[in-house]
Amino acid sequence: MIKRYIGLVAVSFACYSMGGTTAYSHALQTSLYGGISRTHIDPGPLHISESETDILHSDNDSEGTIGIGLGWQFNLLNQNNTHGLLGGFIAGLNYFHFSAEPGGEVWLYGMPQFVNYDYQFSLDTDRLLVNGQMELFPALQVIQPYVEAGVGYAHIRSQYCELPTLGSGATDGNLIFPRRSDNQWVYTLGAGVKTQLSPQWTLSLAYNFTDFGTIHAGPYDSDVVIQQPLDIAMKLHTALLGITYQWA
User: Fold this and answer.
1) In the record, which residues are listed under signal peptide (predicted)?
2) Which of 90, 120, 128, 199 has the fewest CB atoms within 10 Å, i.e. is most exposed?
3) Is the model's pTM score more than 0.70?
């Protein structure tokens, strides 16, 4: 009788443990991304010489962004235990490509009455990020909110040029820097929502903020030597649509 009672308790405890505690599972997934990114650039002063320092006023640009991701999803809860704040964690690699041509006005000597030139800053960027995504509120059935963060490396090709403003009367003095490459660390922060289309397919919509730090343009072309390189702080605001396939 005692042995039978002990066996019954052991079986009951095992069933409770399997049904009521956290069950960890994982799966490989791949993602494709597409969206719109808006640049936010903050050019520093352009030191042409000891006697001339120009001020740049920027107009930001919006262009398309494409990307691909490879991740490993860890589900922290089983189907019988969906209460709580955290539902799952995804760790992986994301690659994104973005090109744009933001520009603006050049105030010669920093004076608004001397707006005779417009500038254009051509950008071509590739970035590879180690990314982490945390799913929230697993009890929600249709829409799954999440937050994410990433850090990685960016390869940036850029070129700065100035041309006379139409109607300004200026006809010469074009300033064209050679194309330059920068490699630097970047980080990204984001939040979004996702919905499951099928057991394997998931659709997501997110906002991502990316900080590229400071890009250096110049320092000279074949005709004009400037006093020091032009520093341009650059950030991206991106609305991103993603489609993800989870491998069984």
Assistant:
1) none
2) 199
3) yes
